[in-house]
Amino acid sequence: MVETRRPGPRGGTAAIARAAAAPLDMSEDAWIEVIRRMDDIYADLVRYQVDLEEKNAALEEAQRFIDSVLASMSDVLVVADVQGRIQRANKAMVNLLGRTEADLVGTELSALFAVSAGPAIANFPDHIRTGDILDCEIEILAAGGEAVPLAVNCSPRYDSEGTLSGMVVTGRPLGELRRAYRDLQETHKQLKTAQQQLVQSEKMASLGRLVAGVAHELNNPISFVFGNMHTLQRYGERLQDYLRLVQRGAPPDVLAQAREQNRIDRILADLGPLIAGSLEGAERVSDIVQNLRRFATPQRQKRRGFDLCRLVESSLAWVSKAARQPVQILRDMPDELPVHNSEGHVQQILINLIQNAFDAMEGQEQPRLDLCVRTADGRAIVQVRDHGPGISDDNLLRVFDPFFTTKPVGKGTGLGLYISYGLATDQCAGALAVRNHPDGGAEFTLELPMEAAHG
Ligand SMILES: Nc1ncnc2c1ncn2[C@@H]1O[C@H](COP(=O)(O)OP(=O)(O)OP(=O)(O)O)[C@@H](O)[C@H]1O
Ligand SMILES: [Mg+2]
Question: What 8-state DSSP symbol labels residue 325?
Answer without folding.
Answer: S
